[in-house]
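Feature request, filed as a ticket because there's no other form

It would be nice if the structure record came with a short human-readable summary line next to the tokens. Right now we just get the raw output. Example of a typical job, pasted below so the devs can see what we mean:
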Amino acid sequence: RPHPSARTSSTRARGARDMPPISPSTERRPLIAVDDASTASTASQHETALAGDFVDVERAARRAHASTTSRIASSALRMSAAACAALVAVATLVTRASDDAGVGGSAARTRAYRFASTMSLDEQLTLLGGQVEEAYIGSTSGFVVSSTRARVPELRMNDGPQGFRAHNQPGTTTQWPCALAVAATFDVGLAHAWGGAMGGEFVRKGANVFLGPGMNLARVPLGGRNFEYIAGEDPALGSAMAPAVIRGIQSRGVIATAKHFIFNEQERDRMYYDAQVDERSMREMYLPMFEASIKDAEVGSIMCSYNKVNGSHACQNSVYMNEILRDDLGFEGFVMSDWLATHSTVPSLKSGLDMEMPTAGLFSRDRLKYALEATDALGKPMLSAERIKVAATRVLTSMFRAGIMDEEETIPRAIDANVRTYNDTTLARNIVAKSAILLKNDGNLLPLDPDAQNKTIITFGAMCAQPWSLSGGGSGHVDPGAKNVFTVNDGLHDAGQDFKWYDEHQLDQALTEATKMGDDLLAIIVCDGAGAGESLDRPRITLNAHQQPVSRFSEKFRKKIVIIVTAPGHVVIPQHADASSILLSFFPGEQAGLGLADVVFGKHAPGGKLPITIPNSENELGNFDQEQYPGTGGKVVYKEGLHVGYRWYNAKGLRPAFHFGHGLTYTTFKYTDAVVETFPVDSSIAANVSFSVTNTGDRIASEVVQVYVTYPRDAQEPPRQLKAFKKIVVAAGQTKQVSLALPVRALQIWSTKEKKWSNVPGEFTFHVGGTSELRKLIACDPVQTHGPDATSGVLEYFGRP
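Raw output as currently delivered:
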């Protein structure tokens, strides 16, 4: 989305519903008119759905406290059937309403409920709609509660995914490596540090809501925002990394926002497409990251997405926001819409949306007041004051939990402050090195000899000198100021290395110079890459601009060619066979050149592993048809089911260019003695996988140990799924013993019949190694398991590496 200062009236006209305040003479229909298939059948169905508060009796009954229903049942012996049914309905409605409002919930939720009870209706309404302002991407108004004189600070929201987006303040914040780069580290501790450092910059800028992290799956290789998403293409990876980032952000007193809920895996037609997704795929592939964010990190906010889900807008989908987020996952914070993603007033509120962003048009104070006064055809209220209080309580719950309500003074509006620090830029540089993925290194060309001062490097390509492929566009864009950006050439210069740079128009001169140097040529570094950003998907993932130059260099200098790729996600590298070494870095940010130079000269060994699969060609991964991407007739059908990313290759028995989890370093590791220990059926742990890892090289380095599980055939699951991982550091010649526990849900599947996680008895196969590539994994003896009933949560499923 464009920054407020860059918006035009035409931009807003495409999606905005900034309607004027409603008066009795104004058309009422938009309050209940819905274009969603799930709620747009007949007027009578609308009236039934909207009447009698936002709680429907059926769902309330499912959540009624056992003690309450027990008392009702015993009383039923002395009552008529009709009277009993009426009493049950009333009791369950009260139970659900009080539970949603905070009674019996967490301490923050209880405080929020009590505080909201002191607020007037006008004051509660203030929390439900945000506005655009020049300084921050969005905000709510601060105010003083009239009855208690207690202060409610304003919420100041800002992007986001790659650092604080200070659109009109270049050079005042850090342009961090992107979320996909952090995912490539497979390092939970580093993810926490990254989140904490960005949260610190938000605080110093006066913001208290971080519009991130993103955690959608990289289902579509062309996806324009894949660089923003911490999950890569695997739910186990995302479910470990996303909570760590959130805990880091929220440790600074900033509310984190898990986004985009849900199925926002492409930018093309994002405002309109209808994601058609089956229940099992949703539960096993796309929901776990959000579940972990709620249960393991207590994320304060969730942002619903633009697209529809199975016929209903994501921001107006009661199944996902009420039944799944609230009833099933226990989310206590508030759901905000993406910018201009709200489509109604009453239906959206009843479906679980708590805050419209930005510019409260559909959730404006006047519009909500009118909805409270309006009645349906049966004369029943369309909206209750209790629903308003519930939404306000949810917002306040996150504010109390983050400490915002307990601040003695309002955080200064320090939007102009330069919040860059030495520690932050040092961390950003280290993340570049720890996320860099060495795809190949024939002849151990890397690391280059840092003491070869009498030799020269030739750098080729505009990207060696220009920063445009170091960060993304849209919400993920951060302008660090030209003086703070370090390109590959800058990194070589900083390292004291002599080099000569040639652009794409100087290939012949570069070849002549390389030939002239002879033995004094240390290496030829070819820089390649691609850009991406919000609102548009990439037209292609093939990097073919330098195919011919690399081919010509290779005729004489193949053993000295290094290709450095900076990209937003998936790439096809046609020239990879013509180079000795390929180093891949996902949008590494301002410190790119310095961090990559640290890797090239061996100051740091490359520490990244692929969080996605690198295909051999366009549209190879998944072999999508038009229905799957970009969609037909307004629908995008996720008919590949569980076969996303590397799981598709595993199921098909095909070999990609580079496997998920792959990444070389400057040493080698040997895995031995892999053993699986199973546990009794009443244990919370299903299996424990133990093995030894030996550094067989001559230098210390990190390794990401990975456990892959193959289910019994009856489970109908893709083979070799990542279930546990851990980043370890092993000294030269050292052997480390590693043990990773796989809790019960690691060996379960989602049963659409039973609506729960279910056991699959039979033979499970376990593999361990440093990649998902089968020939580089070692197998454990197969185990038979039955497992206990499925009651554990996503944290037990994925563990905490």
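Something like this underneath would help us a lot:
The longest strand covers residues 685-695.
Confidence is low (pLDDT under 50) at residues 1-104, 787-801.
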